[in-house]
Amino acid sequence: MSYYPIEQLFDTIMDRIHSDNEKEQFFQYLQQYVDNQKNEITKQTISKNIINDFMNNNMIYYNKTSKLYYHYINNHYVIVNEDNMSHHANEFISNFKTYRNEMNLSLKTSIKHKMIRSIRENSIYENIPDTETIQLIVQYLYPSMFKKKEYCKLFLLLIGNIVLKKKHQQKLNVFMRSEIKSFLSTINKYISMYFCSHNVFNYFKFKYTQDHINHESLLIPSNAICYDMFQLNEQFYVNLICVSIYYANRYKTIDNYLDSLEQDANQVKDKLYFFRRDNRTMILEDYKNTYLIQKEGETMSQKDILFLWKKYIHEKELFAYPFTSHQDFIQKICNYVNENPINNQLSSNLSLQGYCSIDIPIINVFRDFWEKHFTFDEDEYYFETSEILYLLNKEYKPKKISISESIILLIIQTYYTHFSVVNNKIIHNLKSSLWDKKKDLNEFIEKNNIDVNDNSHNLYRRYATIQRPINISKSYFSMYIEQLRGYNSNGSP
């Protein structure tokens, strides 16, 4: 389609006008066209200025998957849905004083749509938080959860890579303490809610098994604490995930981050790549040197080997190790230590021939004490390891036995597995001939004219004020009071 020059076109039109009325109509048409153009330019100017001002004064990201907005305000990523974001945009436009009188509903609506489109170009997966936000997260995790800041950042980097769904050359397993599982579960919940449908537990593991042998395995140390005590709100987790995304974009890979370290790089690498080394042989040799003594005629049973292995794990804080089970370790240490390797031997027959340990005699002392004074009783509950230690030291007084609560717990978990252990300190179904707790409480009730129907908290406070070598725990006290109330209500003595 060809166009005439504007001058020629204008002359042609003027030649065809034969009356003043036609001429007037033509000039009115031109004036209207000019006014419309001017109005359109004005609209574009208004729209551009308002949108630019909004974008300069608001940092808002968008997630096209979840269709959610993330308003970065006061160092926090605040989740905003579509309706609320539309309301926020409308409010900003309506309150823009410079053009308040020049905008009609149609123009406001047009500006809002353009503003929303501009916002959607800012992906949450490309966010860059301020230093204050990063420090807020890092300072919360370190040193309370992680002993080194580097482990903290590695953790965040891995979370970010998971959210961004970065692929690895081979299956990746990241081993951490089992205590952190609840914390990871909460992170996973908010990733699924606000970012993407992806399970962090496809990567984070807590026990080395046969399935992990041919995979890339990393280890990130964390503190052995109860993570449930951290009362963190939703906002914290959203911030954490956004900071994690930033770290993933910044460093891309774990190796890039490690290369950026100026201090402790080798130490961090040794921990992180623990599974890359010949750590089986290293652990077996260290275990042998730590606990085993060669002595002709001696034999160590499987349970003795296993107890020392649990003690080794406890003392070394070895929360992950390259043995797929306790039985796997027993097999490996027997083959490593015995002069004649054991092939295809039944696991029940495994033992260490010609070896003993200086740790076993003290264990045997405790086991003798246990088997003399403790029995299984399905009606008993809440026997604490501290109480067992007290009775042990009392029995062997004045010679105090060099043993700790943690070792007592390991002994029970190894040699007396039919007892139920709760929270690593409470043993159920356990009764001792050295301390009849029910008898003690009955005497307290009788001597002090106690009404068991009174408030149990007040009753225990009264009980605890009486000076005695050791008090029955509040848990046991409350349980027994409840039992007595039940007896009384049933008409029993």
List the helices and strands and how they pair.
Layout: H1 6-16, H2 20-57, E1 59-63, E2 68-73, E3 76-80, H3 82-94, H4 105-120, H5 131-141, H6 149-163, E4 172-175, H7 181-194, E5 204-205, E6 216-219, H8 234-251, H9 254-260, H10 265-272, H11 279-291, E7 293-300, H12 302-316, H13 326-337, E8 352-356, H14 360-373, E9 374-376, E10 383-384, H15 385-395, H16 405-415, E11 420-422, E12 426-428, E13 430-432, H17 437-447, H18 456-464, H19 474-489
Parallel strand pairs: 4-5, 4-6
Antiparallel strand pairs: 1-2, 2-3, 7-8, 9-13, 10-12, 11-12
Main β sheet profile: 3 strands, antiparallel
The helix content, as a percent range, equals 40-55%
What's the total helix number? 19
Structural class: mainly alpha
Global Rg: 37 Å
Mean pLDDT: 89
User: What is the distance, rounded to the nearest whole angstrom, between the alpha carbons of the first and last residues?
Assistant: 111 Å
Q: Total strand count, please?
A: 13
Strand content: 5-15%
Query: How many domains make up the 3D coordinates?
Result: 4
Low-confidence stretches: none
Strand order of the largest sheet: 1-2-3
Shape: elongated
Descriptive overview:
The chain is mainly alpha-helical and 493 residues long. The protein folds into four domains: 13-126, no CATH class; 131-276, no CATH class; 279-358, no CATH class; 370-489, no CATH class. The chain is built from 19 helices and 13 strands. The chain has helices at residues 6-16, 20-57, 82-94, 105-120, 131-141, 149-163, 181-194, 234-251, 254-260, 265-272, 279-291, 302-316, 326-337, 360-373, 385-395, 405-415, 437-447, 456-464, 474-489; strands spanning 59-63, 68-73, 76-80, 172-175, 204-205, 216-219, 293-300, 352-356, 374-376, 383-384, 420-422, 426-428, 430-432. The strands form five sheets. The protein has a three-stranded antiparallel sheet. A three-stranded parallel sheet has the order 5-4-6, with no helix packed on it. A hairpin with a 4-residue loop joins strand 1 (59-63) and strand 2. The longest helix has 38 residues, at 20-57. It starts with 5 loop residues before the first helix and ends with a helix. The model has no long low-confidence stretch (mean pLDDT 89).
